[in-house]
UniProtKB/TrEMBL annotation:
<protein>
    <submittedName>
        <fullName>Sugar ABC transporter permease</fullName>
    </submittedName>
</protein>
<keyword id="KW-0812">Transmembrane</keyword>
<feature type="transmembrane region" description="Helical">
    <location>
        <begin position="12"/>
        <end position="35"/>
    </location>
</feature>
<dbReference type="InterPro" id="IPR035906">
    <property type="entry name" value="MetI-like_sf"/>
</dbReference>
<feature type="transmembrane region" description="Helical">
    <location>
        <begin position="403"/>
        <end position="424"/>
    </location>
</feature>
<comment type="similarity">
    <text>Belongs to the binding-protein-dependent transport system permease family.</text>
</comment>
<keyword id="KW-0813">Transport</keyword>
<dbReference type="InterPro" id="IPR050809">
    <property type="entry name" value="UgpAE/MalFG_permease"/>
</dbReference>
<dbReference type="Pfam" id="PF00528">
    <property type="entry name" value="BPD_transp_1"/>
</dbReference>
<dbReference type="InterPro" id="IPR000515">
    <property type="entry name" value="MetI-like"/>
</dbReference>
<feature type="transmembrane region" description="Helical">
    <location>
        <begin position="74"/>
        <end position="94"/>
    </location>
</feature>
<feature type="domain" description="ABC transmembrane type-1">
    <location>
        <begin position="70"/>
        <end position="423"/>
    </location>
</feature>
<feature type="transmembrane region" description="Helical">
    <location>
        <begin position="304"/>
        <end position="324"/>
    </location>
</feature>
<keyword id="KW-1003">Cell membrane</keyword>
<feature type="transmembrane region" description="Helical">
    <location>
        <begin position="106"/>
        <end position="127"/>
    </location>
</feature>
<feature type="transmembrane region" description="Helical">
    <location>
        <begin position="345"/>
        <end position="369"/>
    </location>
</feature>
<keyword id="KW-1133">Transmembrane helix</keyword>
Length: 433
């Protein structure tokens, strides 16, 4: 019956042509014509009237923005598919050893159901600088603060024109030397009132017993009034501030302010210079600047890997299911440990599948646009630029030049074609086996 149908088709080629014609027309309208028009348009200037030859292609390698996009695309091609494939391989191998493998695969694959636009919006929030809103920095600050203490009063500053002076290293120094017969007063300002909500009223230190006593407080009275440099009744104490006594650059004694802002140093601190170390006033750790110029490309690559690692895992898991278990067990019986089995047997047997995943992800990466456009703020978009985004900005942005935009499109096509040819040849070799 099948041979009869083939004979009919061969006898009537017009019948096959009728079935293929709609697909060919669609292919020509949506693929062939746009490619041909882009090649033609890339040879003309911005207006499309003057023939410029290969000048637009020369612009690809002389324009700074396009060169940045080329560099970033190279980073994407090398890093993103490699990381996603490696994670997919690890997930596929490890999920074979857990009971809840199906649930794990579902969770890892779930981001594939989200559009690039939605993923970009999600990670724009994840990478927020403020730890109260950004998940990434919230985790980083939590871990950091677990092992490192934060500064006591990061906003506190000396009163302008007062007796406390800021040093180059960020510390604050009381200009008059310590005197056992007079209290050492270190007034500070600029602390926000909400931070003082639980602070106790500042106390006036006592002196004259041979020790150095003093106070550190917020020298500001709400509603006005008060005497600058003196402890007034309504002013708040700054507790937990380290005070050092320094002689010839060496710390000879130190103390910490109590809840009422007072501190006491031993008698040997008499005549020393009192210093508030910069550690008391350093800004709190707020995590990494994910959306800054230095980390924006790795951050976007991380969001892309979050989406596509599940895709790699599913394909590799399908290939792993066809690996002969007898071969793996034989290797274990011969004394190979799990790492040796993985490196010398599992990975070589999965090489064809890994190649398919890598090639597919590389083609996808060359077309990356949505994530970069959504995640990268306008201020750092130039640093995160890629060819597909540059194509859009050049062709439809404020300073349009569709000749250069078409040249970028042709260049992207030339980058994709070799990868596709390699993939097609590999598939043909697989079918001939």
């Amino acid at each position: 019956m099948a041979s009869g149908k083939v004979a009919v088709i061969r006898a009537r080629p017009w019948a096959a042509a009728c079935f293929l014609l709609p697909a060919l027309l669609l292919l020509g309208a949506l693929v062939v014509y746009p490619i041909g028009y882009s090649i033609w348009r890339s040879l003309y200037d911005a207006s499309g009237d003057s023939f410029v030859g290969l000048d637009n292609f020369q612009e690809l390698f002389t324009n700074d923005a396009i060169r940045t996009a080329l560099r970033n695309n190279l980073i994407w091609i090398v890093v993103a598919p490699t990381v996603a494939t490696a994670l997919g391989l690890v997930f596929a191998v490890l999920t074979e050893r857990i009971r809840w493998a199906t649930a794990f695969k579902l969770i890892v694959f779930m981001p594939m159901a989200i559009s690039m636009l939605a993923a970009g919006i999600i990670f724009r929030l994840v990478y927020e600088q403020n730890p109260d809103r950004g998940l990434a920095n919230a985790v980083m600050t939590t871990v950091h603060d677990t092992f490192a203490e934060s500064s006591s009063w990061p906003d506190a500053q000396p009163r302008p024109g007062g007796s406390v002076e800021v040093q180059e290293d960020g510390s604050y120094v009381l200009l008059p030397p310590a005197d056992a017969n007079a209290p050492a007063l270190l007034p500070l300002v600029a602390v926000p009132q909400p931070e003082l909500a639980d602070a106790e009223p500042a106390a006036v230190p006592e002196s004259g017993n041979g020790e150095i006593s003093g106070a550190v407080w917020m020298d500001f009275t709400r509603g006005g009034g008060g005497t600058p440099g003196a402890v007034d009744p309504e002013e708040k104490a700054l507790a937990g501030i380290t005070v050092e006594a320094v002689v010839d650059g060496e710390v000879i004694a130190e103390a910490e302010t109590a809840e009422d802002g007072t501190f006491t140093l031993p008698a040997e601190a008499d005549g020393a210079q009192l210093r508030l170390p910069s550690d008391n006033f350093t800004a709190p750790y707020n995590g990494a600047e994910w959306l800054g110029p230095n980390l924006i490309t790795p951050a976007i690559i991380g969001s892309w890997v979050w989406m596509w690692a599940g895709f790699a895992m599913v394909l590799i898991a399908a290939g792993l299911a066809s690996v002969p278990r007898e071969t793996l067990e034989a290797a274990r019986v011969d004394g190979a440990n799990e790492w040796q089995v993985f490196r010398r047997i599992t990975v070589p047997l999965l090489a064809p599948v890994l190649a398919v995943v890598m090639v597919t992800l590389m083609i996808n990466v060359l077309k990356i646009f949505d994530l970069v456009y959504v995640i990268a703020p306008t201020s750092v978009q130039d640093e995160a630029n890629v060819l597909a985004l540059q194509l859009y900005l050049t062709s439809f942005g404020t300073d349009t030049h569709q000749g250069v935009g078409s040249a970028i499109a042709v260049f992207l096509l030339l980058l994709v074609v070799p990868v596709m040819i390699i993939n097609v040849r590999r598939l043909r070799r697989e079918n001939q086996r």
